[in-house]
Amino acid sequence: MTDEQKVESIISKHHGLRKNLIALLLDIQTEFNYLPPESLRRVAKALDMPLSEIVGVVTFYRAFSLKPRGKHFVQICLGTACHVRGGGRILEEFEQRLDVRAGETTKDKQFTVETVACLGCCAIGPVVTVDGEYFGHTTVRKVTAILKKYQKPAKAASRAVGSPAPQPAAAD
Ligand code: FES
């Protein structure tokens, strides 16, 4: 299926209805990890809406991205509460481990790292999210485990934080 066909199929799934715009855009973003400009033009045409209106919606919600993102989207909170508890050091650790700077995507297109001003749960800071999953009370030491949970399972990804990794064989 071509990219155009994928977009058309998503539009059809939502019956080309304006009231489904957000859900439709979310589906496109899930498919491509961002919203390709051509897809927005197609949505505008199908929903008979001005492109500018759709771009307005896309830029309003942080969940959407007009820039290509990696498979996994990491947000590191640098709001005041998280910053004073070491958010900056956690960002540095992600940057070092993934060899990217904030706002960039890894060469293998697996991770995009961004900073955010507040994730709305300051009490559990420093907070990191990956694909919308929250990791509270994050420490530099926990970064490895968080990444392991999302890294390709080519190499044994065991002892992931927060979820039992299905690794049937050889524990140590
Ligand atoms: S400052 Fe980090 S969640 Fe609010």
Report on the architecture of this protein:
With 172 residues, the chain is of the alpha+beta class. It folds into 2 domains: 3-60, no CATH class; 72-150, Glutaredoxin. Helix content is 41%, strand content 10%. It contains 7 helices and 4 strands. Strands 2-1-3-4 form a 4-stranded mixed β-sheet, covered by helices on one side. Helix 1 (3-13) runs antiparallel to helix 2 and helix 1 (3-13) runs parallel beside helix 3. The longest helix has 12 residues, at 21-32. It is elongated. Bound molecules: FE2/S2 (inorganic) cluster. The site of FE2/S2 (inorganic) cluster (FES) has 12 residues, from helix 5.
Mean pLDDT: 88
SS summary, helix count = 7
Number of beta strands: 4
Major sheet: 4 strands, mixed
CATH architecture of the largest domain: 3-Layer(aba) Sandwich
Low-confidence stretches: 155-172
Q: What's the assembly state of these chains? A: single chain
Outline:
The chain is α+β, with helices and mostly antiparallel strands and 172 residues long. It has helices spanning 3-13, 21-32, 37-47, 51-60, 80-84, 87-98, 142-150; strands spanning 72-77, 111-116, 128-130, 133-135.
List keywords for this structure.
172 residues, alpha+beta, Glutaredoxin, 2 domains, 4-stranded mixed β-sheet, 4 strands, elongated, disordered C terminus, binds FE2/S2 (inorganic) cluster
Which SSEs are present, and which pair or pack?
Layout: H1 3-13, H2 21-32, H3 37-47, H4 51-60, E1 72-77, H5 80-84, H6 87-98, E2 111-116, E3 128-130, E4 133-135, H7 142-150
Parallel strand pairs: 1-2
Antiparallel strand pairs: 1-3, 3-4
Helix pairs in contact: 1-2, 1-3
The site of FE2/S2 (inorganic) cluster has 12 residues, from helix 5.
